UniProtKB/TrEMBL annotation:
<dbReference type="InterPro" id="IPR036271">
    <property type="entry name" value="Tet_transcr_reg_TetR-rel_C_sf"/>
</dbReference>
<dbReference type="InterPro" id="IPR023772">
    <property type="entry name" value="DNA-bd_HTH_TetR-type_CS"/>
</dbReference>
<keyword id="KW-0804">Transcription</keyword>
<dbReference type="Pfam" id="PF00440">
    <property type="entry name" value="TetR_N"/>
</dbReference>
<keyword id="KW-0238">DNA-binding</keyword>
<protein>
    <submittedName>
        <fullName>TetR/AcrR family transcriptional regulator</fullName>
    </submittedName>
</protein>
<feature type="DNA-binding region" description="H-T-H motif">
    <location>
        <begin position="33"/>
        <end position="52"/>
    </location>
</feature>
<keyword id="KW-0805">Transcription regulation</keyword>
<dbReference type="InterPro" id="IPR009057">
    <property type="entry name" value="Homeodomain-like_sf"/>
</dbReference>
<feature type="domain" description="HTH tetR-type">
    <location>
        <begin position="10"/>
        <end position="70"/>
    </location>
</feature>
<dbReference type="InterPro" id="IPR001647">
    <property type="entry name" value="HTH_TetR"/>
</dbReference>
Length: 197
């Protein structure tokens, strides 16, 4: 039997994550049955679970993948840009990863954190990535003299994460997004250092 290359395995894993992202976003964790995951990925259950131990491991890997993508955006542009991406949510896999499909995954993570202690324990090991990226970006901004210096970086990190959670909840409830871009302008301005005042 010929060996499968690592590139092929990585591409197959990416195919599973991208397909399952839309499935979890559309149907939630419980509604994302194996049959629906097969349809969304275009692969058999054997192919899916060759790469992931079970549905929960797949969901955790997906949530971790989304957190890593968000952390990359945070490192380059800050957490407010992640929020702007949620509002923009153009088409395409990369955009959906930080847009509508990501929102569905994020909501499902939040729901499971409230109701499933075992999941909460497993997620706690993975959730620090975004916080660490946000803190590092803010520390960099502080060293560059761009960040207000009257509030501790850890407080600003918590503040931005709370804004993100509020935005996710707002969008999840289907509330109007008309002025949210301007709201994010205010949030961004609120963490900046204002010289000459």
């Amino acid at each position: 039997m010929p060996r499968v290359s690592q590139d092929h395995l990585d591409a197959r894993r990416r195919q599973i994550l991208d397909g399952s992202r839309s499935c979890f976003a559309r149907f939630g964790y419980e509604g994302a049955t194996v049959r629906r995951l097969e349809e969304a990925t275009g692969l058999s259950r054997g192919a899916i679970f060759h790469h992931f131990k079970d549905k929960e491991s797949l969901f955790l890997a997906l949530a971790e993948d989304d957190a890593a993508r968000m952390a990359d955006v945070v490192a380059e542009q800050g957490l407010v840009q992640v929020m702007r991406n949620l509002l923009d949510a153009p088409s395409g896999v990369e955009a959906r990863a930080l847009g509508a499909d990501w929102l569905g995954t994020r909501l499902e993570v939040s729901r499971r954190l409230r109701t499933d202690t075992e999941f909460r324990d497993r997620w706690a090991q993975r959730s620090e990535l975004l916080t660490a990226a946000t803190r590092a970006r803010l520390q960099w901004q502080h060293r560059a003299g761009n960040l207000r210096d009257d509030v501790d970086v850890d407080v600003l990190t918590a503040y931005l994460e709370l804004v993100l959670e509020g935005l996710v909840s707002h969008l999840a409830m289907g509330l109007p997004a008309k002025h949210l871009t301007s709201v994010l302008d205010v949030v961004e301005e609120s963490v900046r250092r204002h010289r000459g005042r």
